[in-house]
Design brief:
alpha+beta; Alpha-Beta Plaits; four-stranded antiparallel beta sheet; 8 helices; 8 strands; globular
Length: 250
C-alpha cells in the first residue's frame, strides 16, 4: 500500500512539473510572437525576441519549437494584446496580473471572475502603481561566471542596482530603463543568462495569518493556470509559518 501511495505522489509531482513546464513554454512562445510582431523575426535586430529565445533555451525548449513559434508569428495576421489587471486578494494583499490575449473580452471576464470567486476585488488600472517598482531581473547560473569579483564590477558598470548571489544562481537587478543596457553588457561579457524578465517588485509587503495566506496563494494559482496570464505579482510576506504550511499542503 505504501508503494502505491509513493507512486501516486510521484505521479502528482511529475504532473505538476509537466504542467509548470508547459505553462513556461506557452508563456515564452507568446512573448516571442509579440516580439516578432513588434520588430520582425531576426533576433539580431530584435532585442525583445533575443531575450525570449534565451529564456526558451534556459528552460530547455527544443529548437524546433522556438523556430516554429517565430515562423508562425511572422506569418500569422492575428496579434496578441498586452493587458494588465490590478486588484486585492484576501487580507488586502495587492495582486498585479499581466496577460497576453487574442480576445480581450474573454480575458477581462475571466480575470474578474477569478478575483470575485476567491474573495478578491478587481480595481482600476493604476491603482497599485505605487506599491510595485518595475525592475529588470537577470538570472544567471553561478557556473557561467568565471570570476565573481570581475563580474560584479562589470554588471555594476552596466547599471546593476543589486546583485543577489546564492549557491546555484546569481540575480542581477536593474532599473527598468537599464534592462536593454544590461542585456547588451552580459552579451558583451559572453555570460549566458538562464532567464531575463521585467518584474513588478513590491516596495511594501503585507503580512497576514496562515489561513488567509493560503487562500491568497490559491487565488494566485488560479490566475497562473489561466492560459491568457503571463505573470502574477503580489506583495504577500512569505513568513516561515506560511512557507511551512505550503509545504505541508503539497
Amino acid at each position: 500500500m505504501s508503494g502505491h501511495n509513493k507512486w501516486s505522489t510521484i505521479k502528482r509531482k511529475k504532473g505538476a512539473l509537466d504542467a509548470k513546464r508547459s505553462k513556461m513554454f506557452s508563456r515564452i512562445i507568446k512573448e516571442m510572437m509579440v516580439a516578432v510582431k513588434e520588430s520582425g523575426p531576426d533576433p539580431d535586430a530584435n532585442p525583445r525576441l533575443r531575450v525570449a529565445i534565451n529564456n526558451a533555451k534556459g528552460v530547455n525548449m527544443p529548437k524546433e519549437n522556438i523556430q516554429r513559434a517565430i515562423n508562425k508569428a511572422d506569418q500569422d495576421k492575428n496579434s496578441l494584446q498586452e493587458m494588465t489587471f490590478e486588484g486585492y486578494g484576501p487580507g488586502g494583499v495587492a495582486i498585479f496580473v499581466e496577460a497576453l490575449t487574442d480576445n480581450s473580452n474573454r480575458t477581462v471576464s475571466t480575470i474578474r471572475s477569478i478575483y470575485t470567486k476567491k474573495g478578491g476585488s478587481m480595481g482600476t488600472n493604476g491603482s497599485l502603481s505605487f506599491l510595485f517598482d518595475r525592475k529588470g531581473v537577470f538570472t544567471i547560473p553561478v557556473a557561467n561566471v568565471k570570476s565573481m569579483e570581475e563580474f560584479e564590477l562589470e554588471v555594476i558598470d552596466g547599471g546593476a542596482e543589486d546583485i543577489d548571489v546564492n549557491e546555484e544562481t546569481i540575480e542581477v537587478i536593474t532599473a527598468m530603463e537599464d534592462f536593454g543596457r544590461m542585456q547588451k553588457k552580459l552579451e558583451e561579457l559572453g555570460v549566458e543568462v538562464e532567464n531575463a524578465e521585467l518584474r513588478r517588485i513590491p516596495n511594501d509587503l503585507k503580512t497576514v495569518d496562515v489561513s488567509t495566506g493560503l487562500k491568497l496563494l490559491r487565488l494566485v494559482d488560479d490566475f497562473e493556470e489561466n492560459d491568457d496570464v503571463q505573470y502574477v505579482f503580489h506583495n504577500l510576506e512569505l513568513t516561515e509559518e506560511l512557507m511551512a504550511a505550503m509545504e505541508a499542503a503539497e
